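Case study 2.
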Amino acid sequence: MDRRAHIVIGVLILLTALELALPMAYSMDSIVWIKVYAPAVTRTEKGFEGVVTEIFIGIGPGSGEVYISTLPLTEIDMQASARVAAMVACELAGENFYRYNFYVKVRAPAPIMGGPSAGAVMTVAMVALLKNLELRKDIMMTGMINPDGTIGPVGGIYEKAEAAHKLGVKVFLIPYGQEVVTRQEIVRRRIGPFIIEETKTISLNITEYAMKHWGMRIIEVFDIREAMYYFTGLRITSPPVEEFESPKVYLEVTSWLFNRLLQNYTSLLTEVEKARNQAEGFMRKELDRILNRAEALIEEAKARADEMKFYVAASKAFQAIILCQYAKYYVELISHGEEALADVVEEVRYLLDMARNVVNSSTVITINALELLLAAKIRLREAEEIYDEAIRAYRKGDYAGSMYRLAFSKWRAVTAIEWFKVAVRFGAGAMVNLTSLKTLIENYLYEALTVSSYAYTVLSQAGAMSEALQLAEEAMEFVDKAKESFFKGDLLLSLAESIEALSRASVAMNLLNINPQALRLHIELLSRLSLISIHECLNANILPFMALCYQEYALEIRDPAVSMIFYRSSAIYAKILLSLLGVHARPAEIVEKPSVSPSRKPSSEGSSHVREGSEGYLSEVEELINELLRLFNLFTKYLYMYREVVLTCIIIVLLVVVTVLVLAAPRRTNR
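Prediction:
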């Protein structure tokens, strides 16, 4: 074997070693850990008592997996809470959730009740790791983490605060609106020779009580940014909300939709008016009632159109045309009996088949058309579901209910076709990478499943108000639909249904705290998130049609829950477009220096390290060592993330070197 063969074999061995060693070296040494404390409640012979749990959180490179280990075992909602915490932390830090794995170890001195109350502090710890921040150890916190970054209410605040005090904590953070708590107090009174003990439930202001009896400061916090300030001394701000005018194309599209509905309404009203003029008695009164309501809606629609709120105007015109169609079906039923209703069923079924063929005919997807196609898909799905309800009502003999649902189904199918036409007419632009789109749809389905399961579990166990629990149940139904659509290959419909699930689950968690002031803050926050996402799209030269539509509609709605759902949907639609173009919203910014610089010390767990807060400053040597460790971890993290690029470059360089060596090597000649 000559010299050139030895060189080639050596290079191949070296490349193989690099391929195997690079990820292995990183995966063993690059998980960064942080340790935090979280109060919990345990049941004892004396009743409920507070205990303090240790939570170790690690972050390393990965693919969006969240692993949790608890000792003793906790309830299942802690697992979902950890997953939501990781998602929220990544969004706040401006990091891609699917590029990391998260590891959570919970160690409690006794079996604890529940698990979601540690969600907020887990989020704080994860943000600290992602942003390389230090945490104070004289602060403790309780509170759920909601998908939008707000902190949800929890129970057992008195017991948890008492446990924090016993550990020497000086500041205890609790969810906004929960400073008035209840506790069980044993009251003894003597009756003759006997001492009678009674347990009474008393209310107290935990903020005043803790300061007076324990010298501990209790602070209410609304969202994770406020919590981060108290833990780090840093104010983390979101991008500013800048005013913008509605884009010209958006106004053109929504005004076109409104005018189309208005024309259809006018034509349909002409037919129904003839029947009303000939009607008498009860039939005339019923037609007057229906059409008067329709006319009132049309007047409202025209007023909104004058204000350039064309999407709201179109929504009101849609409601009016359903009433008008219902009046027409009512006349036909009274005039011709059940046979007329059977004809209507056949008419709507035919229209649904046509809408299905139209909406599912798209094979080319552009960035500008994506939202519009999602709108068409979800409206067609709704039309089909309402049609099925109409058939069930028809078979039960509920003809009035069946007629109204058939009217709704018909015009919902028509609007699905109209949105598809808008997508074709205004959807020119950059093509969507189908591989990236499928990955994004899978991620949103996964997120919808996580958040919806979390909301349903927490709300059902907490005995939440019916509206919140109903939204959580609706979210789970949309998740089931999204999974079904995904496995059938209808990826766009799956994405649209995942968005519906995410919006409802998030708002369901917000409704757990029904404090009016907290509800107002939730609405303001969701509106702000929607505007920020829309503005990011406009800055990237993307026109977020549905995000703008839902933002406009949310401003019009008086029902807080419905308004929040539309704000949340608006933000999600805009973020989807940004993700597909690889444009990430600006991460939170740190605008103040910390007042306390906590310390960081090595952990005994493997080759990773645990960071803990401290009130003192590290020595210069310790700071230098920790900084070198941090830089090494950052280096290995990015080396691992871009290992394919690194290996490709190494291979190219080595091949060039081998080629040069082979060509330059002297050849042996036979003599």
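Confidence is low (pLDDT under 50) at residues 19-28, 593-619.
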